[in-house]
Amino acid sequence: MAELTQQKPIIRITFDEMEAYMLLPEPEQGTGYTDSQIRQEMAARGITTGIDEQRISDMLEGHTYNAELLVAQGKKPVDGTDGYYEYKFDTNFDGKPKLLPDGSVDYWSVHSIESVTAGQVIAVYHPAVSGEDGMSVKGRLVPAKHGREQMPLKGKGFDRMDDEVTYTASMDGKIEMQNDRIVVLPVHEVSGNAELAEGNIDFRGDIVIHGNVESGVNIRATGSITIDGVAEACMLEAGKDIILRGGMLGGNKASVKTKGAITAKFFEFTNILCEGDLQADVLMDCSVICHGQIRLTGRKGSIIGGKVQAIRGLIATSLGNDAEKRTEIFVGAGIDVYSRLRVMEKKIEMTREELAKIEEGLEKFEILSKERGVSYTNDPRRTSLLRIKIKDSAMLASDEEEVRKLRILAESSKGACVSVLQEIYPGVVINMDELKLALKNMATGVEFYKLPDKIGTRPCSAGVE
C-alpha cells in the first residue's frame, strides 16, 4: 500500500504584510488538515496578529479546498490631522466692483476693509489630532503620520485667550492678513463730510469717509482711503488702495496718488498717479500715470480727453467722443522709463567703481598702520574716505532699489495693448514707446498692439471680468 502524502497549507503574505491569504490544496483521500497543523504553518511564516479564527475554522469544517481566502489582516494606521486655524473674517477679497446685468458697475460692492471690534473673536485654533499606529500580520508596528501643531498666530492688535485656542481683537479697527501675520490696524472714520473748516486729515492707518470731501481738503493715509460720497478738488494720498464710490470732480485742482490700486465711479479734471491697477467708469480730461492696468469696462466705460498712461495696458468700452476731442493714450513703459533705467545703471556702475577706490584707500591706511605701528583711526584723510563711503553706500542702495522697480515696470509692460470693446473715435492718439498712431476714422471692437516698426490693429479679444 502506497504511503499517503500529507499536503501543506499554502500561505501568501502581501508585500506590505497587512494581509495573509491561505489556500488548502485538496488532500489525498484519507488525509486532511488539522488546526494545529495550520497554526504551525502560520507561526512558521511569522503570522501572529489579526488572525481570523472563524475563517480558519470554517475552512477546516467546510473542507474548503483550492480557494485562497483571507485568514489574517493587520491593523492599518490611522493618520492624524494637522492643527489648523479657523478664521472668523474674510481673508481673501479682491477689492473689485461687480458688473451688473445691465452693464453698469456697482461701486458699492467693493469690499475695501474688514472691520472688527475689540473683543471680537477673529480666529479659533483646532489642535492637531494624534495618529493611531497600526500593526502588520507579523506583529510589526506600522507608524501612523501624526498631526503637527501650528505655531501661535503672529501679528498685532489681538490677544490669545486663556484657553490658548481663541484669538480676539484687542481694539476696534481693520483686520487683514499680511503674509502669515494677522494685523488689526486703526481706522479713522468720518461719519459725514470732510470739510475744509475741520482741517486736513493725516492718519497712520486707513481712512473711511461716509460723506463727501470738500475742495481744498488734503487727506493722507498710510493705509487705504475710502470715500462713500463725491470727492471735489482735494488731494488724496494713500499707501494702499483708494476707493471713490461717488467719483471725483477735480476741477483741474485735484490730485490722487497711491501705492496701491484705485477704484472709482469717475474722474474729471484730475491728476492721478497709481502704482497698482485703476478701474473706473469714466476718465474725463485727466492726467493719469498708472503702473498697472487701466480698466473702464462698464456700460459707459470711456476715456474722453486728457493724457492717460497705463504701463500694463488698457481696456475700455470706448475712447474719445464724436466731437473728436483729442485723447492721448500711452501704454507700455515708455521711452522715459528705459532712458532712466540706462542712466541709473550707468550711475550704479560709476558708484561701485568709486567705492572700490575708497576701499583701496582705506586698505592702504591699514597696511601703513601695521608697518609703522601707528594708528590712523583719526587721520582726517581716512575719516573723509569713511564719510564718502557711507554716503556712496547709501546712495548705491537707493539707486539699486530704483533700478529694481524700473526693471519690474519694463518687464510688466511687455505685450501691453489697448483694447476697445466698442467705439474709438477720431482724435484719439495711441502711443506705444516711440510709436504713435492718430485715429482718422471711427472704429469698433479693435485692439492695438506693438509691432517692431508700427502699431498694429486686430479684432478686440479682451473679455470683461
TrEMBL record:
Q: Which PANTHER family match?
A: POLYMERASE-RELATED, RNA-BINDING PROTEIN KHPB N-TERMINAL DOMAIN-CONTAINING PROTEIN
Q: Which UniProt keywords apply?
A: Coiled coil
The UniProt entry, under Pfam families, shows: FapA, FapA_N
Extract the InterPro entries matched here: FapA (IPR005646), FapA_b_solenoid (IPR046865), FapA_N (IPR046866)
- Flagellar Assembly Protein A N-terminal region domain residues: 11-178
- Coiled-coil region(s) at which residues? 341-368
Q: Does the keyword Ligase apply?
A: no
> What's the protein here called?
Flagellar Assembly Protein A N-terminal region domain-containing protein
